[in-house]
Amino acid sequence: MQLDKILAISGRPGLYEMKAETRSGIVAISLVDGKRITSSINNQISILSEIQVYCIGKEIPLAEVLKKLLKKESGNIASIKPKAAAADLKAYFSDLVEHYDEDRVYSSDIKKIIQWYNILVTNKIIILEKLTPKPPTKSKEDPNNNKETSKSIKNPKT
């Protein structure tokens, strides 16, 4: 999950992909409508890979929360709407993130995380990794894996 170039810019809705840095700010492209914008240093710019979610006793990276959400939703858009009631959002989030700090994580934060998740899934920036089964390995008791036979063929005794 590459969130190093995905930005949230205060005062602007949605997420942006950083394309270039300038002396006075950044050039980015909106992941919602594809429009190119420039943002100055005066705006608060947050890189998603650096955002943490408050939990009791520790903080966990946003990327970890997004992975849990991706797994819970099987790679689809979130089943709960971001505009759902605050109680519903908190219940959904408490099932997702154990022991999150309810005093410091507001329903508006949960709403924003769900909106961001939906944007990232829609743009295929985060995808569910399918686990492929590993091929079976040969055991020591396998008759086809006899070391003595291979030695005798390589070094025949006369």
Task: Walk me through the structure.
The protein is α+β, with helices and mostly antiparallel strands. The chain has 2 domains: 1-49, SH3 type barrels, CATH 2.30.30; 51-129, Arc Repressor Mutant, subunit A, CATH 1.10.10. The protein contains 4 helices and 7 strands; from the N terminus they run βββββββαααα. The chain has helices at 62-72, 86-96, 107-122, 147-154; strands at 6-9, 16-22, 25-30, 36-40, 45-47, 52-55, 58-61. A hairpin with a 6-residue loop joins strand 1 (6-9) and strand 2. Helix 2 (86-96) crosses helix 3. It is globular.
Oligomer: single chain
Q: What string gives the helices and strands in order? A: EEEEEEEHHHH
Low-confidence stretches: 147-153
Straight-line N-to-C gap: 60 Å
Let me know the largest β-sheet: 5 strands, antiparallel
How many helical stretches? Answer: 4
**What is the residue-averaged pLDDT?**
85
Specify the CATH architecture of the largest domain: Orthogonal Bundle
Number-wise, the strands total 7
* Total number of domains: 2
Shape descriptor reads: globular
Strand content: 15-25%
With strands numbered from the N-terminus, the spatial order across the biggest sheet is 4-3-2-1-5
What structural class do you assign from the helix and strand content?
A: alpha+beta
> Could you please say which CATH topology of the largest domain applies here?
Arc Repressor Mutant, subunit A
- CA-atom Rg in angstroms: 24 Å
> What is the CATH class of the largest domain?
Mainly Alpha
**Helix-residue proportion:** 25-40%
